[in-house]
């Protein structure tokens, strides 16, 4: 596999970096919770259509292109729910929906006309995907009861993609409109400033078309693996930018009459940060290669290995970046502390290090 970026991929990376360049500065000025690069802007650039199939009006792109974008979003501290609503949601709809409904939903998502947030996890169940939310038949439709938690991108979404038990262990994927009066969201910001919601479904009445289709936990986990890789790339971008900011800071901050960068101990710290970040990139490249040619178990092992490597190293890199800045590293006005917060939230989004170590060991036999 050739890991060098093609000319088109370089253009995608450079264009994304320019577009997202002032996202953090704009957010700090209070010009919008998600910064200047809004969802409509993402749609205009074709980013929302990247994974949507061509028959639904998408670009039919691949995971490598998504990872390039995700890396730039991590660098820019973008708060748009791209991974949740453009990667994971698109994958779930493409997996489960069928016929004209599939084409209509994917087309609306790719154009930015509609945005959906996946609701997969439940309170007190950590990273288990088997739902306890239940859907029972009600007239011609369904009645939904239960709760979902930690829904990234749920605030402002048009609807939720909800996994629910239909009975006898059958799992269905439902589209529930946020405007439904029996859906009770609790909105809050995680420590990285991202909008998140928990929801309660209190006898939510849904029409027959709300059931997009029947699926399996294994199939959902396969789609999640693409989102997990995208989040690893996002984290890599955040870490590399944090290292760059730290190296520049040490060159300008003086102590004892000379820049801090002149002190050998600090030079070694920065070099170790660079090496650790580069090892994450190597692990990500390995996972991409397995995605191109491997079966389900191989892909899962590669993703969990990449996740463990990424977030095991990320804590040390981001923590050292803050440490080398001193007090300024913890201020909200300065970006480096926000990279640490982003890493801490990301690591717990689709299974923490402990979860993925256990998954890897189970798959390794």
Task: Give the topology, please.
Blueprint lengths: L6 H14 L2 H6 L10 H6 L18 H14 L5 H15 L2 H13 L4 E4 L14 E5 L2 E12 L6 E9 L2 E8 L5 E7 L5 E12 L4 E5 L1 H36 L1 E2 L2 E2 L4 H30 L2 H30 L10 H11 L6 H12 L1
Parallel strand pairs: 1-4
Antiparallel strand pairs: 2-3, 3-7, 4-5, 5-8, 6-7, 9-10
Protein architecture, described:
Strands 1-4-5-8 form a four-stranded mixed sheet. The protein has three domains: about 5-110, Butyryl-Coa Dehydrogenase, subunit A, domain 1 (Orthogonal Bundle), CATH 1.10.540.10; about 115-215, Butyryl-CoA Dehydrogenase, subunit A, domain 2, CATH 2.40.110; about 220-365, Butyryl-CoA Dehydrogenase, subunit A, domain 3. The two termini are about 30 Å apart. It has eleven helices and ten strands. Strand 2 (about 135-140) and strand 3 form a beta hairpin. With about 375 residues, the chain is of the alpha+beta class. The mean pLDDT is about 95.
């Amino acid at each position: 596999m050739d890991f060098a970026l093609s000319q088109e991929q370089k253009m995608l990376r450079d264009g994304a970096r320019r577009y997202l360049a002032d996202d953090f500065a704009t957010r700090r000025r209070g010009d919008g919770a998600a910064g200047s690069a809004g969802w409509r802007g993402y749609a205009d650039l074709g980013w929302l259509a990247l994974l949507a199939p061509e028959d639904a009006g998408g670009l039919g792109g691949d995971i490598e292109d998504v990872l390039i974008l995700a890396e730039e979003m991590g660098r820019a501290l973008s708060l748009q729910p791209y991974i949740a609503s453009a990667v994971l949601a698109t994958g779930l709809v493409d997996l489960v929906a069928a016929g004209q409904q599939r084409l209509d939903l994917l087309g609306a998502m790719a154009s930015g006309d509609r945005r959906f947030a996946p609701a997969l996890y439940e309170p007190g169940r950590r990273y288990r995907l088997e739902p306890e939310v239940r859907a029972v038949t009600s007239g011609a439709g369904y009645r939904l009861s239960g709760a979902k938690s930690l829904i990234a991108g749920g605030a402002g979404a048009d609807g939720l993609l909800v996994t629910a038990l239909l009975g006898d262990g059958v799992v269905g994927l439902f589209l529930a409109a946020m405007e439904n009066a029996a859906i009770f969201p609790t909105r809050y910001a995680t420590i990285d400033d991202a909008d998140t919601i928990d929801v309660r479904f209190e006898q939510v009445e849904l029409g027959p078309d709300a059931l997009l289709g029947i699926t399996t936990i294994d199939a959902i986990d396969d789609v999640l693996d693409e989102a997990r890789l995208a989040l690893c790339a996002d984290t890599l971008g955040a870490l590399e930018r944090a290292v760059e900011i730290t190296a520049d800071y040490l060159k300008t901050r003086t102590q004892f009459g000379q820049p801090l960068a002149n002190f050998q101990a600090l030079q070694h710290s920065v070099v170790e940060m660079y090496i650790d970040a580069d090892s994450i990139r190597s692990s990500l490249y390995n996972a991409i290669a397995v995605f191109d040619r491997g079966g389900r178990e191989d892909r899962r092992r590669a993703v969990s290995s990449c996740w463990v490597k990424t977030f095991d190293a990320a804590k040390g890199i981001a923590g050292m970046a803050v440490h080398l800045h001193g007090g300024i590293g913890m201020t909200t006005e300065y970006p480096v502390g926000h990279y640490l917060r982003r890493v801490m939230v990301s690591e717990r989004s689709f299974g923490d290090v402990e979860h993925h170590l256990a998954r890897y060991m189970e798959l390794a036999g």
